[in-house]
Amino acid sequence: MDLLPLFAPLYSGPFLWVALGGLFLGAAASRATRRTRTARDPERARTRKWVLVCLWLSVAVILGLAAVFVPGPSRILNPSYAWIAGTVAALAFIAFRFRKAAGIPVLVLLLALAAVLGLFLQSVRAFTGETEIATVRVLSVQPGSMRLQLVPRGDEPVLLTMKGTSFAPIVRVVIFSDFLVFLGVRTWYRFEGMTSFDDSLRQQDTDFRFARPPGLSERVWKLFETYERWIPGVKTAQTELVAKRAQELSTFGIMVENDGGVQIVARQGGG
User: Fold this and answer.
1) How far apart are CA 259 and CA 246, in angstroms?
2) pTM of the full predicted structure?
């Protein structure tokens, strides 16, 4: 883990890329509709005009691709982003095309609109977002034991045989203040392994521990755990244990939510 989550609002969502793409698209349209006949050198002015149009369009296309591939293709499917791009492009066109009459008022309106929409989308995403850290597939369930396939995010699958009837991920989380969550900081985690429980919720003795747990290093976790009250913006550093009853041939996702909670969610076709 590093400080990249602090800058998440700048790159992790489509809004910034879409808005900037609309801005350059509007600038290109404005330049394309300008007349060059009255220029001192019409031929040179015409050449410069279309060079700038191609340049602004190229930047708009690059930003559009960034809006798709930086946050992930699934997130750009929201129709609201098309409206955002169109609105920004229209306002940018008016601001650049009629700079003397409407440039400053439209620019102020554009900045205000971008700020309002950005804050709204960010607030929704900040408090409803989640990160999948692993998936668990229940291969078989026997009286008093279960066979699991654990697939940590970005790592190789692990086969586990555990006592009991319910499994639980061992996840240590660092929960940040609401203000930092609003700015885009996600809960930091250290996924240490898996444990299990019987029907009476008694913890069993077949825990699995990663040799190198995904997420925070042990040194960083201990730093947060020891000095959390002195670190600005940190609410708490704690261990979350959430158990799920094993159901044969079911698949579950282990999720860390932005508010610090850990959930085990059944996947489609699972139990």
Assistant:
1) 26
2) 0.54
